[in-house]
Write a structure and sequence with these properties.
This protein is mainly α and 162 residues long. Strand 1 and strand 2 form a beta hairpin. Helices cover 68% and strands 6% of the residues. The protein folds into two domains: 2-117, Arc Repressor Mutant, subunit A (Orthogonal Bundle), CATH 1.10.10; 128-162. It contains eight helices and two strands, in the order αααααββααα. 11% of the residues are buried. Helix 4 crosses helix 5 (70-82).
């Protein structure tokens, strides 16, 4: 046990996050009815299905949520639209904006997606106290902000070099 504790204590944080992310990807079961979607498309569909419960979703939201470029999101959404999982509708306030709306085909997947998310959360947090979860969330948010700040600085340097 002491060797395992020592190994964990010496493991780089980035490596631990990467390993956890890989474990989550392996545990991510296929959603029946969404076999023709890539893993990133499934994540985007989950986001759209969950977020549209409380607010409208636009392409810009996907770009920000997943930290991916506009051209990449465009390709993802075009394929999802082609496969009948989403449709784009003009925004009521600004016709230039297109809301991303899940189709009936996507809505039919909502119950299994919700069940999967709940199961994954339960597995992830098993044996972890609420206090530990709060600290974990706070630390992960701080790490995210640290990297986001570094990325902004790099972008500013790149723009000055152009």
């Amino acid at each position: 046990m002491q060797d395992a504790d020592e190994k964990v204590r010496n493991m780089h944080i980035g490596r631990m996050i990467h390993t956890l992310a890989n474990q989550m990807k392996r545990a991510d079961v296929d959603i029946k009815g969404a076999e023709d979607l890539t893993p990133i498309q499934k994540h985007v569909l989950k986001y759209i299905l969950l977020t549209t419960l409380c607010k409208d979703v636009y392409q810009k939201d996907i770009e920000e949520e997943f930290q991916i470029r506009k051209s990449t999101v465009t390709g993802i959404l075009k394929l999802m639209e082609k496969n009948g999982f989403i449709k784009r509708e003009c925004d009521k306030k600004d016709a230039r904006l297109k809301r991303l709306v899940p189709t009936e085909k996507a809505e039919a997947l909502r119950p299994s997606i919700m069940k999967h998310i709940q199961g994954t959360e339960a597995r992830l947090t098993e044996g972890v106290s609420q206090e530990e979860l709060d600290v974990c969330r706070k630390v992960m948010c701080r790490m995210f902000c640290n990297l986001a700040e570094k990325n902004r600085e790099n972008k500013e340097v790149d723009q000055k070099d152009e």
